[in-house]
Design a protein that fits this description.
With 267 residues, the protein is mainly alpha-helical. Helix 2 runs parallel beside helix 4. The longest helix is centred in the C-terminal third of the chain and has 23 residues.
Length: 267
Amino acid sequence: MFSSGATLLFCVFAAFTGVVLGHTPAKRDDNLPARVPYVFPAPGTDPVADALRARRPNNTLLDLDGLLLQDEGLAAGWNALATVIRDNNSLPAPMRELFILRTGVLNEAAYVWLQHESVGRSVGLTVEQLREIRLTPAFLGPLTPNSTLTPELGAALLFADFMARAVKVPQPVFDGLRRFLSDRQMVDAVATAGTHSLVSRFVVALDADSKADVPVPVPTEDEVDATAHRGGLYAVKAQNGWLDRLKVPTKVKRLGRLAYMHWRRVN
């Protein structure tokens, strides 16, 4: 029979080998409840659900999908729009993800950020740029000293702020972004920011994955931290000092602390 300390160490080690070494796919949802029940048809039993699966990593439905599938007409239309916005968008990928992430920040939609931070990293947004997207107060992007954003990403940040907070975009702000984009790309910019205002408000109002009251995470340098923020380790309980007494690698200790902080936050 394992002691509680040995059980904790085993859980942390298993998470470390899976998340850090890449032996298992990273979880994108924590499978926590929403305000209405999720609908998850079995594979091959529902064409709309299967179409949603086809766009997801490992063909796994997200909690967002489970909410949409309460109304199959809505789910089908949503998926068609999302396919264009995410997969057939004329914007540069870093700018597309900036629009999505920034809109999630301004609407306090942690769920959106948790889904897209890793995507932002994968398309080239640096940790410093992600932190700027996360932490810059609305409308103050142009005043940021030593900004890490390129001129076009800085223009996109301000454009996103006006779309999310003011709705009406002043002509100078529009023109500031238009300097870098074609007519088609300007339409895609508006569509991307506008669509993710819908997404963020949808997931917050319905409390997808119980994330409505979770603060939007602040990006860190450590990929382990970013992965832990996506969740799945909430059941690990530990005291901060307990891990310091264990002769285990520093990254495992850090992961254990993060797991404990997340567990405390949701319990």
